[in-house]
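User: Some background: our group keeps a shared notebook of sequences we're curious about, and every so often someone picks one and asks for a predicted structure to add to the entry. Today it's my turn. The entry only has the sequence so far, pasted here. Could you supply the structure so I can complete it?
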Amino acid sequence: MVFVTIMSNALFPENTPGMTSQNPLDQSTIQSESNGLRIESITESLSTHPEFDGHEEVVQCNDAKTGLRAIVAVHSTRRGPSLGGCRRWQYEDDKLAITDVLRLSKAMSYKHAIAGTPRGGGKAVILSDSRAAKTPNLLRSFGRFVDSLEGRYITAEDVGISCDDMLYVREQTEFVSGLPNNLGGSGDPSPMTAYGVFCGVLAALAWQNGLEQADPCNHEVFKDRTIAVQGLGHVGFDLCRQLHAAGAKLIVADVNMVPVEAACKELAAVSCSTDEIATAEADVYAPCALGNVLNADSIQKLRAKIVAGAANNQLGTPEDGTALHKRGILYAPDFVINAGGIINIANEQPSYNRERARNQTEKIAETLWQILTRSKQLDQPTSVVAEQLGRQRLAQS
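Assistant: Of course. Here's the predicted structure to add to the notebook entry:
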């Protein structure tokens, strides 16, 4: 391993395949060059970024040979090693990738703290490009990148990365979670993520119905209720299955019509366009695709009185949480109700126990109830109350 220090004008070198032209950084420090990887710390350069929240570490990696361009952000390790999924996405520019990984890693800290898992908040993004396919060698390069952090960040699957992809990553590092069950892992975390969101939707409906508590076994709250689900990936489709089994009616939308047609056939769902799903006539709007779907424009058009979905970073800005509160729309904070996946992964040690993970995931309903109670008492947005709770538990770690 060779340690050098240079000044750079680019987030990723210009000769990198798929290099985008815009860049938020003026300089970065190369930490190491090993096995063809170019690994650089960009933490200090991001200290004035609006989404920077005292992150402990932000590191980027470039591998010209495989086309890997990736960023890992470690927000906090106060509760333990940071744990968060790796998202592979084609960002319009590098600025958006930086913003995404900073926001996601911070949310992971709050998610772990509120869920009570012994992990900190971290996240990785792989910048996708049509010229850099998701090959086994690219994933192995990512594994070496993760390994260079020496356990400060533990990776897992997320959007664009599967459980099988993690097997290639695992060849290069031990700091991987969510592996298949036959390898001692917890497998695909999507079903448990979906179950946590299901419990969150149930609690929100129970609150709206004036019940005294949220009982995950009380499916009566779904009777004659319509849920508009946006995004039918692994989590979204599994959520639809659970909602259908509980008696809810479904409106669904996705850019891919294959799962939409399957939901209509198997779950008696009604298809809707992705442009209209957020304004559909429904009791609950459940965003389960990418984030930033709740903004000044979309909030004013919402018909649903509850927003509860699996997508991360649903609020475009913190002010959007206030806007929902002022409109009387019950917002179930995403990092509270989509924690089932990380609860599932956290239960891999010392040996995976699915029943234990499911029981802990059910507590999401109780946690959301506490947040709703506090929000009502203080007349504060649920987003504010949830973030305060996350910061408080993080500080107590």
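Suggested note for the entry: The CA atoms of residues 230 and 253 lie 5 Å apart. The mean pLDDT is 90.
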